[in-house]
Amino acid sequence: MIPELSSLSVCMRDPQRVEEIIKAMQKAGTSTIQVISDFDMTLTRFAYNGKRCPPSHNILNNSRLISEECKAQLKDLLNTYYPIEIDSKWTVEEKLPLMVDWWTKAHTGDVVKESDAMLRELYQLFFDHLQEHSIPLLIFSAGLGDVLEEVIRLLKAFKGELIHIYNKREGALLNTGHFQELKSRHNVLLVGDSLGDLTMADGVHSIEDILKIGFLNDKVEERKTSYLNAYDIVLVKDETMEVPNALLLCFGVALPRSYS
């Protein structure tokens, strides 16, 4: 159905199942679709010209605009809170306020412009497709809110609740106005770059179809099998939004009569 899915960077464990999901979502129409995406290494590039691009937290840590004193404080925060984050003895409920505390304290400075952070190629077309068809985009990230805002220049979409690694899913929106707006959108295009991103759609109201796209950026041979078992479409070392764009374009086109 979609020529871009024949690219050498595209891997699918079950192409027939992918086609069935695409047809179902296309038939349902764009008014039923929402896009849920991670940010770092998903909307942003993993690398450019062979050089790693920084995730949002590293934008602060690597900045020449941040004083050495501030960098030392950031390091202290990391040393204080990171052991708690990875300690299995702590419950999620116990970790939540501490993780929020960590990222809020580290949330300082406007240093994006001098960083090497970049959105993936064709990102503007991706946002244009979403706007053209009024498809909501939810970006759930463990990154710093203001840094994300500065990178993608969408200033009105990221105010309010901090969505971080321990409530990085749509269920975190249950008590917000955004959730009411999404209740009628039962089909999800989920885009991530880690196996942990697969939970982002948890809490979607009466979900019908979900198409999961995973960017496999690194350690391909080591991770490929697990990604293929988890994601419907795996994009190997693909620094573009070409496949998500092609899917959005497909969803916006009327379904051929033979499929209706």
From TrEMBL:
Pfam families cross-referenced by the UniProt entry: UMPH-1
Signal sequence, renumbered to the chain: none
Domain of life: Eukaryota
Catalysed reaction equations from the record: CMP + H2O = cytidine + phosphate; a ribonucleoside 5'-phosphate + H2O = a ribonucleoside + phosphate; N(7)-methyl-GMP + H2O = N(7)-methylguanosine + phosphate
GO molecular function, one term: magnesium ion binding
GO biological process: nucleotide metabolic process
Primary location: cytoplasm
Keyword presence, Nucleotide-binding: yes
Keyword Transferase in record: no
Intracellular or extracellular location(s): Cytoplasm
GO CC entries: cytoplasm
InterPro entries documented for this protein: HAD-like_sf (IPR036412), HAD_sf (IPR023214), Pyrimidine_nucleotidase_eu (IPR006434)
Coiled coil regions, renumbered to chain: none
Key words, A-Z: Cytoplasm, Hydrolase, Magnesium, Metal-binding, Nucleotide metabolism, Nucleotide-binding
Summary of the function given for this chain in its UniProt record: Specifically hydrolyzes 7-methylguanosine monophosphate (m(7)GMP) to 7-methylguanosine and inorganic phosphate. The specific activity for m(7)GMP may protect cells against undesired salvage of m(7)GMP and its incorporation into nucleic acids. Also has weak activity for CMP. UMP and purine nucleotides are poor substrates.
Subunit (UniProt): Monomer.
Database matches in PANTHER family: 5'-NUCLEOTIDASE, 7-METHYLGUANOSINE PHOSPHATE-SPECIFIC 5'-NUCLEOTIDASE
Similarity remark: Belongs to the pyrimidine 5'-nucleotidase family.
The protein's name in its UniProt record: 5'-nucleotidase
